[in-house]
Specification:
The chain is 26% helix and 21% strand. It has 6 helices and 10 strands, in the order E-H-E-E-H-E-H-H-E-E-H-E-H-E-E-E. A hairpin with a 6-residue loop joins strand 9 and strand 10. It is globular, with a radius of gyration of 16 Å.
Length: 206
């Protein structure tokens, strides 16, 4: 059964956040809120976490996983960014965007797109997620919590706990979450290619 953590949306309890971070370090797969919608998350190098996310979402090996980062300093360790791309991403973060970029050697091979050697990265604008990332001290390997054959993600923590009780280890609930996943922008080819229109405003990249 999944542990259920009720977290204050503006002043997340430090002890609770610490407990969740400890469970992630021990291999837990969690469902957690972001500034777009709920996501599945695990430790960066967790092979079992990756396989569990693939299984829950029915994903193939071409799926771009996302490294959810606390800040730009952390993000820069895992992707290559030239000056023009840096400025474009900097202006849009933190926010509801995922950026696909060439990965550095710091990214585990199993996370990379098999042909492009790219990975998704984002910096969320969400108090609870930021608190968790600060405690964890490293990016959270993530994927949108969108179940196969469903058009919209679940928005309620209790519903996620009820439906995924035996396939995730913990659920963080800090109130209602949105239904739109992030806007995805692919910078791996040099220019900005809009891959998915979601919660983030795409006009700045058109």
């Amino acid at each position: 059964m999944a542990k259920y953590f009720d977290v204050h949306p503006e002043n997340p309890q430090r002890r609770t956040i610490g407990n969740v971070a400890d469970s992630i370090r021990s291999g837990a797969l969690i469902a957690y809120p972001t500034d777009s919608c709920f996501a599945l998350g695990c430790q960066l190098g967790s092979r079992s976490g990756i396989e569990r996310i693939r299984s829950i979402r029915n994903l193939d090996d071409r799926h771009h996983f996302t490294l959810v980062c606390e800040n730009f300093s952390q993000l820069g360790q895992f992707v290559h960014i030239d000056n023009d791309v840096f400025r474009a991403i900097k202006a849009a973060t933190p926010g509801s965007y995922t950026f696909i970029l060439p990965a550095t050697k710091e990214v585990p091979r199993q996370l990379l797109h098999p042909k492009k050697k790219t990975v998704g990265v984002r910096i969320p604008d969400h108090v609870v997620t930021q608190a968790l990332l600060a405690d964890l001290g490293e990016p959270l390997l993530s994927s949108t919590l969108l179940l196969p054959d469903e058009e919209e993600p679940m928005t309620q923590g209790w519903e996620i706990k009820e439906r995924l009780d035996h396939v995730v280890d913990a659920v963080i609930d800090s109130g209602d979450c949105g239904t739109e996943p992030t806007t995805v922008i692919d910078f791996s080819g040099g220019g900005a290619e809009i891959v998915r229109r979601g919660a983030g405003d795409v006009s700045r990249f058109e």
